[in-house]
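Researcher: Final request for today, and then I'll write up notes for the group meeting. The sequence and the SMILES for zinc ion follow.
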Amino acid sequence: MKGIVYHGQEDFRVEDVADPKIQDEHDAVVRIEKTAICGSDLHLWHGDPLPITGFTLGHEFGGVVEEVGSAVGRFQKGDRVVVSCTAGCGQCSFCHRHLYSGCQKVAAAGAFTNVFGNPLLPGGQAEGARVPFADTNLFRVPESLGLEQALFLTDILPTGTMGAELAEVGFGDTVVVFGCGPVGTFAQRASQIRGAAMVIAVDLHEGRLERAKERGCIPLNPAKEDLRERVLELTHGEGADAAIEAIGVPSLVRDAIDVVRTGGRVSVIGVITADEVPLPIMSGLMAKNLTFRAGLVMPQNHVQSLMPLIEQGRLDPTEIITHRMPLADGVAGYEVFAAREEDVMKVVLTP
Ligand SMILES: [Zn+2]
Ligand SMILES: [Zn+2]
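Model: Predicted protein-zinc ion complex:
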């Protein structure tokens, strides 16, 4: 079958890869019908070359179950599914505590090894994939929904939702969301659904800010107006109740701490690849009595509440799709996405 394979920085290729096979009784093999390129895939595109090449990329995908192992109980051949980007076993003590990202079995080789699209867990920018522990990591797509409507349950919709959850966004809150990309969009939507009175959307891209305004957010371009002053002006001089960093830029973590009020909550869900980021502990976290949280998405915890919102039309995740291409043109999809050409937000590939 075909897949998009990592060969190094800016060197991804569509080529023949091994067909996925059942290797364990808990596995399923999924024939992929839709797969997306994620902002976090761009870290590999731009980033330092990895020592290992030749693995299939991609962690946002769905399709039809083709085969299941003998221990899979909840799914069978023919089921339409989307796949959690972070795989858990559902059995270890962390999975039992709903901390699937730290699964002691699937992530035993180290952090992130249970995110699809690495040498140990080949990804879903391909015609098919093996999904370990299918009962934990597959989500059934209701008949009323198209696969595209459910596709972002694999990662970015739960990620944005988790941003609002970690920042404890509630009824009547004022929330600052850093980023109007796919994750930022969903953090804004989740904040609105959780009852935020005002969502201030921060971005440098005017086109993205315009779309945020259409979603009912207040756009704020920090290149054009002073971020902190504008937030204070909008919050009667107090600062926001909560802030969500949804891009992954170290300096924005400090900005997020800066714009919340005393007793505010800050969450970081943008992927920050720098391991150490300076934080204002005394003047920020302590002096303002802040709650500061960060985390890696675990779609298993959010799909059950998000699916009905999509079914009821209160959320339309397809709003972020700007480009649709065949998988065969996937490298061109990466190039468009990486260059931020054509106002690109999300590229969806069809194998
Ligand atoms: Zn992703
Ligand atoms: Zn586990």
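Model: The chain has a mean pLDDT of 96. The domain at 160-294 is CATH 3.40.50.720 (Rossmann fold).
Researcher: Thanks, that's everything.
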